[in-house]
Amino acid sequence: MSTSPAPHAPASAATGPDAGTVVDTATGPAVETAAETAAAPASATASPSPVSVPAPAGTAVLKNPLFPDGPAADPAGSHGERRVRSFHPRRGRLTVTQADAVERLWRRWGVEVDGSPLDPAALMPGLPVVLEIGFGMGEATAAMAAADPGTGILAVDVHTPGQGNLLHLAEREGLSNVRVANGDAVVLLRDMLPPASLAGLRVYFSDPWPKKRHHKRRLIQPDFVALAVSRLRSGAVVHLATDWEPYAEQMLEVLSAEPELENLHDGYAPRPDFRPLTKFERQGLAKGHVVNDLLFRRR
Fold first, then answer.
1. Nearest alpha carbon to residue 153 among 209, 62, 169
2. Which conformational region is residue 197 in: left (phi greater than 0), alpha (psi within -120 to 50 degrees), or beta?
3. At what angle do helices 160-173 and 96-109 cross, to 10 degrees?
4. Which 8-state DSSP code applies to residue 69?
5. What is the pTM of this model?
6. 277-294 confidence digits (pLDDT tens)
7. Please, what's the largest Cα pairwise distance for the chain?
8. Contacts of 215 (CB under 8 A, 6+ apart)
9. 157 is known as an active-site residue
10. Which of 8, 2, 34 shows the shortest CA–CA distance to 21?
11. Which of 18, 148, 207, 223 is catalytic?
12. CB 118 within 8 A of CB 192
């Protein structure tokens, strides 16, 4: 975890000879191309030298260890909990560019959700901080950060490729107002963030868990909302969006029942211009789903 600010100007973007080359973080050691190994920047995190394997240019070269300073698989050690979670950790497969961003940038801009106390004001001094839960590949997060540099975004997810992609986008666009958190958002809210420390909460297109027997896994539940609201300052905005109408109905019911929140609209909100179209939204619209936004404010 680090609180150092991002550079004021974007550094050169990580490149690779083949955008389809991947690193499998679930089944084996990191993979990077021979060309990238030779061109690794001096600022890369310290690690043992790559294994010397004769290979044609552009083919994979093994490198150990796997992201020694990168996001952990379970940074909080599950806290010994038997709580039903709304997510499954997804390490996934990284492109060369994403893996490079994780290796170089995690120690500066990454936050491990390990239960240690965290002051959002120290992450991005002088900026109000909004928590975004579940950012996918990070394109919408980066776009919102670029459009509103006066607001800091603490974006939390468990998807390693998305974490790497958002780090890459933040560096490429010279964004100083983004930090990437890895782990369980409930642990982050409950054990790490102090009361009234956040300027907003964003949850866009979280897993709707459509089967009835899985509804208990949905993130937006009364207990979660009460916890999240306790970490919001007065006037902070809660912004949710989903393309699954039964889940939208549950969201509206749960938020409306929270006494510390007031609806900024009569029911669902018109789609706000500041929320970029996300990949999940495009997929939902292509299937004929109706997208609903909800905007509530902390009293």
1. 169
2. alpha
3. 80
4. T
5. 0.75
6. 988 899 899 999 999 999
7. 65
8. 209, 250
9. no
10. 34
11. 207
12. yes
